[in-house]
Amino acid sequence: MDLRTRYLGLELRNPLVASSSPLTGAVESLLALEDAGAAAVVLPSLFEEQVEHDAFALDHAVGVGTGVNMEAHGGYFPALDDYNTGADEYLDLLIAAKRALSIPVIVSLNGTSDGGWIRYATALQDEGADAIELNVYHVAADPEASGAQVEDRYLHLVEHVRSAVDVPLAVKIGPFFSSPANMARRLAAAGADGIVLFNRFYQPDIDLETLDVRPDLVLSTPDELRLVLRWIAIMAGRVDADLAATTGVHDADGVVKLILAGADVAMSASALLRHGPGHLRTMLDGMTRWFTDRDYQSVDQARGSMSQASAPDASAFERANYLKTLVAYAPRG
Ligand SMILES: Cc1cc2nc3c(=O)[nH]c(=O)nc-3n(C[C@H](O)[C@H](O)[C@H](O)COP(=O)(O)O)c2cc1C
């Protein structure tokens, strides 16, 4: 079974990538991920706020609170105390990762405005980053800003980073666009070599005891794969960029489904945090078994065979299936 995969022009040994998380923030766990079979790793993000204000608190910027440790109770979860500490440390991490690993190392830039932080893209390229993932973590909370204005902001950022570097560029986006596939096309036209679907926005909660807004981070569940699966299937073959799937990739079945839908790579974070880096090997072995049992010769042969463009029932990915699904609903128990 030939698992080799091309993503962002990089030759990968298989389609499983370790997504940005605390596990990709230290050389020891990066090596464990490589040993478990990861084809590439995405380092945690260098945040605009880290670069612009240096003294940076992750929980302030993205809402990672202490609840994260409770959520991962019993699982593999490195301390977050020194997660995403500063620009110099980030360059050091990249240098150390490049020295220690033989798989590609993708760096991640996370920001929303057209600031000086973008110049770090060049520094990261110079230190040997194999590709850059640009995470535009923008919560469109301004009622005065139209959808078109929000989209322009993304496109402008991509053009800006694209003009600064030659390394491959992926853009990680959320699902909240009126026309996600159109947006993906425009991002590709603006210079993105890959689209990473979907960013998972951390949802604030209200603590009814203290009446505080709690920015707890809850790890994903396998059910969350569905949203990504649909949009990978819809975009496969229709967007001039590679497609990476993130959110809800917890097991071999999920990886297989994403490849059939047309994903170039599947990325995982929550499942690896919960079960440890060795879980990647379990996913990889299960995926390989599924394909070999069905006589596939390569992952490429399977990729996209269940995309919307190729599926026997293309409407299954759209509205047409809605009524059928509602009618077929049977209460459990
Ligand atoms: C603790 C934690 C830290 C994360 N840090 C980053 C980050 O620095 N940059 C980023 O782009 N995504 C980050 N993510 C998001 C993951 O890379 C991933 O896209 C998301 O969790 C959905 O995938 P999953 O369902 O496999 O967890 C983080 C996720 C977790 C759980």
What does this 3D model show about the protein?
This protein has helices at 27-35, 48-53, 58-62, 67-71, 87-100, 120-126, 147-164, 180-189, 225-235, 252-261, 270-275, 279-293, 299-302, 320-328; strands at 5-7, 10-12, 16-18, 40-47, 105-110, 131-135, 169-173, 194-197, 205-207, 212-214, 242-245, 265-268. The protein is an alpha/beta fold and 333 residues long. It has a single domain, classed as TIM Barrel (Alpha-Beta Barrel), CATH 3.20.20. An 8-stranded parallel beta barrel has the order 3-4-5-6-7-8-11-12, surrounded by 7 helices. Helix 6 (120-126) links the parallel strand 5 (105-110) and strand 6 (131-135). The longest helix is centred in the middle third of the chain and has 18 residues, at 147-164. The chain is globular and about 55 Å long. The N and C termini lie far apart (42 Å). Flavin mononucleotide (FMN) binds next to strand 4, strand 5 and helix 11.
